[in-house]
Structure formats: C-alpha cells, structure tokens
Write a structure and sequence with these properties.
With 74 residues, the chain is mostly beta strands. The protein has one domain. The protein has a five-stranded antiparallel sheet. It is globular and about 30 Å long.
C-alpha cells in the first residue's frame, strides 16, 4: 500500500493574506487529492483538478463547525 503524505510549503512565518499563506499539498499515497491554504482570512481548499475553483472557510466558521460537528476528546 502506498504511503499517504502531506507536504508543507512555508511561504512566511506570520499568516498574512493569500500570498503569504501556508500551503499543504495533500496526497492519498498514489495521487494528489488537493491543496489546502491557510491564511489570515481562513482556509481555501482546492480539490484535485479544480482549475482554480475552491472552497473558502473563515476561521470563525471553522470554529463553529468544529464545535458543532466534532466530538471532544479527553
């Protein structure tokens, strides 16, 4: 079985606008799944073969989704 991996590309130390975002290339072991960018404004997910279209999630919306949908661990 192929090893899953996530590669991190640091473009800056302090999260800024999109041009200074942290960029993760997500691979399922055999092919690219997509790219995740973290910036001051939130998350942007670019699915494989997205041709530039993406999903955007603000930090506030992310916090709300986590609180509502993910069980806390101890």
């Amino acid at each position: 079985m192929a090893r899953k991996s996530v590669l991190l590309s640091l473009k800056g130390y302090e999260l800024g606008r999109e041009e200074r975002a942290l960029s993760f290339i997500v691979n399922d072991g055999t092919e690219k799944v997509g790219e995740l960018e973290l910036s001051r404004g939130g998350f942007r997910w670019y699915p494989r073969n997205s041709k530039g279209s993406h999903h955007h999630l603000t930090w506030d919306r992310f916090a709300k989704l986590v609180e509502e949908n993910i069980k806390k661990t101890t």
